[in-house]
Each structure stands twice: as structure tokens, then as C-alpha cells.
């Protein structure tokens, strides 16, 4: 009830303005968030040699610049994923670039990996209280060619490797031109093989691949094979659905992402984080029942807030 009142106010504003106001406001009350976290109860869950504080985490995209980092756990998240982070700062696509579709409980975004860059985020991560595990979602700069994309992923991975609990290679956002070509064939093989070479003498940190909801059939089988050849630890299913105007997230994606989870677990033993259309704890359980080991939410939290954690 409390969040529904707050939501009316926030939804009266432009979506990106509202988003930024929330981040600024929460940054001011960090000590209060710490106290709320200390009063919460979490169910611990160990996987990938990481102790997660629950099976529902915050998806990448909401906290692009690590404004709150692990303090998001005060709302109930068992882990937090920041980013997408690129080597150099970039402004992203022209505004307006974030749109609510309230009747469908959905959001369309065409943000374009707007972020403050790897080195600035590195300094923020150093100051994080590390309340719960932090994943780092990484991507390439818009001006980097696909042929040299692996260099961008390696740069951010190298700089932030000691500061993240797991890492996500984002090759599936629909809002950077030609980025999704990195999910396919030789492009993907080059990136994953270079990442494998980088990490083979490093302390173990899980590396995951985030895939588009359009990936299916033979394309998915090929991706699974390349992931297995390069010791990828997990996949995130799925990113946003490409529509006119950007990437669609929210309730319309629920069954689509569920179908991708069903398909993946039939062809590969590589673990899945399920994301897409979660609006309740019942939705979380559905994705877990299909074979996901963990789940994430973004749009559902925008619409439901912390009340999502108390809904059946």
C-alpha cells in the first residue's frame, strides 16, 4: 500500500527523471538502508562457491553506476547486479529513451549503455559495504567495432575482477547497433575464448552470458556448445525483447523467458539465472521450477517496489 502511493507520484514524472530522483534520494539515506538490512532475515543459498542471501536478485540496468550497490539488499534482494559497465564513460542514446507501458505492466528502454565508465565505477565498488554478492554486467562501448569487442570486455573484466563476485557478458542488448551479432558464431567464440585465456590463472569468479529472448532452436544449441567449450559458468535468460523503439521488459516477457529456460535446460547443464516478467514470489518459484537456479527482477520492482517481496 505504501509503495502504491509513492508510485503514483513517481509515475507522474518522466520515467528517467523519476529513476534518477529515486537513486539520488536513496543515496542520501544510505545509513537508514544499512539499518533496514540489518533487521531483515535472509535465506542463505550457496552456488558457484558464492553465498547468496536469497534466490531473487536485482537485475542489471537499474543501478548502472553502482549508486547503491549492495545496499539494494535492504529491500530484500539476495544479490545485486550493477551495470552495464563499459570501458569508457558514455552518455547513451538521445532522450527520451525510457517509456512506461502501464496497461501491460511493461517498460521500453533504449538507454544505450549510459554509464560513468569502468574506472569511476571501480572507485565506487571499493567503497561498497558488500552486504550481499555483487555481479558486474559488462559491455562494449558504442564506438568499438565488433571485431575488437573482446578488448572492451577484457578491459573491464581485468579492472574490476577483484571487486565483483560474478561477471556477466552482455552481448544481447537491442539498444547498441549490431551488439547482438556478438551472440553468434565466430564473434561469440572469439570473446569467450579470450575471456577463458584471461581467467585461467585467476582466482575463480563465475562468468555468465546474457542472451536475447529471440535466441532459440539451432542458434541456442550453437551458443550452448560455444559456452561449454569455454567453461562459461552460467547464462541469464533473458534480456529485453527487441521492439520498435527499444527493448521491452516486464510482464509480456514472462512466458517468453520461461520458454527460453525450458529450452536451455534440455540442451545444456550450464546453470541459468531466470529474469523477465517477475512480479511476485510466485513468479520467482515458477522460474525456479523450470530449472533456473537464481532469478532477477527489474521492471517488476519498478511497478511493485518492496511490496513484491511480500506478495504470494
Summarize, please.
By secondary structure, this protein is of the alpha/beta class. The protein has ten helices and 14 strands.
Classified in CATH, the superfamily is: Aldolase class I
The overall average pLDDT, rounded, is: 97
Per CATH, the class reads Alpha Beta
* Whole-angstrom Rg: 18 Å
Estimated structural class: alpha/beta
As a percent range, the share of helical residues equals 25-40%
* Quaternary structure classification: single chain
> Are there runs of 5+ residues with pLDDT below 50, and where?
none
Task: Bin the strand percentage.
Answer: 15-25%
Q: Can you tell me the CATH topology?
A: TIM Barrel
Order of helices and strands: HHHEEEEEEHEHEHEHEEEHEHEH
Strand order of the largest sheet: 3-14-13-10-9-8-7-4
Total domain modules: 1
Biggest sheet layout: 8 strands, parallel
Which features does this protein show?
four-stranded antiparallel sheet, 312 residues, single chain, TIM Barrel, 14 strands, alpha/beta, eight-stranded parallel sheet, 10 helices
Give a structural overview.
The chain has 312 residues and is an alpha/beta fold. It has a single domain, classed as Aldolase class I (TIM Barrel, Alpha-Beta Barrel), CATH 3.20.20.70. The chain is 36% helix and 19% strand. It has ten helices and 14 strands. The protein has helices spanning 2-10, 15-28, 30-39, 118-126, 149-160, 185-199, 217-229, 254-267, 281-289, 299-304; strands spanning 45-47, 50-52, 56-58, 80-85, 98-101, 106-109, 134-138, 166-170, 207-211, 234-237, 241-243, 246-250, 272-275, 294-297. The strands form three sheets. The chain has an eight-stranded parallel β-sheet. Strands 5-6-12-11 form a four-stranded antiparallel β-sheet, with no helix packed on it. Strand 7 (134-138), helix 5 (149-160) and strand 8 (166-170) form a beta-alpha-beta unit. Helix 5 packs parallel to helix 6 (185-199) and helix 6 (185-199) runs parallel beside helix 7 (217-229). The longest helix has 15 residues, at 185-199. The protein is globular, with a radius of gyration of 18 Å. The two termini are 15 Å apart. The relative contact order is 0.14. The model has no long low-confidence stretch (mean pLDDT 97).
Amino acid at each position: 500500500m505504501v509503495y502504491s502511493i509513492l508510485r503514483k507520484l513517481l509515475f507522474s514524472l518522466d520515467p528517467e527523471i523519476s529513476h534518477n530522483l529515486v537513486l539520488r534520494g536513496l543515496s542520501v539515506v544510505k545509513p537508514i538502508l544499512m539499518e533496514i538490512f540489518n533487521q531483515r532475515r535472509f535465506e542463505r543459498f550457496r552456488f558457484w562457491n558464492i553465498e547468496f542471501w536469497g534466490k531473487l536478485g536485482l537485475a542489471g540496468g537499474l543501478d548502472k553506476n553502482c549508486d547503491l550497490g549492495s545496499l539494494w539488499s535492504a529491500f530484500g534482494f539476495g544479490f545485486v547486479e550493477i551495470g552495464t559497465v563499459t570501458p569508457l564513460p558514455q552518455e547513451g542514446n538521445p532522450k527520451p529513451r525510457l517509456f512506461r507501458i502501464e496497461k501491460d505492466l511493461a517498460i521500453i528502454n533504449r538507454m544505450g549503455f549510459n554509464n560513468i565508465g569502468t574506472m569511476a565505477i571501480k572507485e565506487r565498488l571499493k567503497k561498497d559495504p558488500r552486504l550481499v554478492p555483487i555481479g558486474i554486467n559488462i559491455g562494449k562501448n558504442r564506438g568499438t567495432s565488433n571485431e575488437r569487442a573482446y578488448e572492451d570486455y577484457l578491459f573491464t573484466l581485468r579492472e574490476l575482477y577483484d571487486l565483483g563476485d560474478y561477471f556477466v557478458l552482455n552481448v544481447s542488448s537491442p539498444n547498441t547497433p549490431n551488439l547482438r551479432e556478438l551472440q553468434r558464431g565466430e564473434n561469440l567464440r572469439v570473446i569467450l575464448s579470450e575471456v577463458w585465456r584471461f581467467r585461467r590463472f585467476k582466482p575463480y569468479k563465475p562468468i555468465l552470458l546474457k542472451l536475447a529472448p529471440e535466441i532459440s532452436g539451432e542458434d541456442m544449441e550453437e551458443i550452448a556448445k560455444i559456452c561449454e567449450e569455454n567453461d562459461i559458468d552460467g547464462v541469464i535468460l533473458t534480456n529485453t525483447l527487441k521492439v520498435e523503439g527499444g527493448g521491452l521488459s516486464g510482464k509480456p516477457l514472462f512466458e517468453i523467458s520461461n520458454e527460453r529456460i525450458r529450452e536451455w535446460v534440455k540442451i545444456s547443464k550450464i546453470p541459468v539465472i531466470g529474469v523477465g516478467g517477475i512480479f511476485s514470489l510466485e513468479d520467482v518459484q515458477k522460474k525456479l521450477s523450470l530449472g533456473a537456479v537464481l532469478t532477477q527482477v527489474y521492471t517488476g520492482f519498478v511497478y511493485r517496489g518492496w511490496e513484491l517481496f511480500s506478495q504470494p
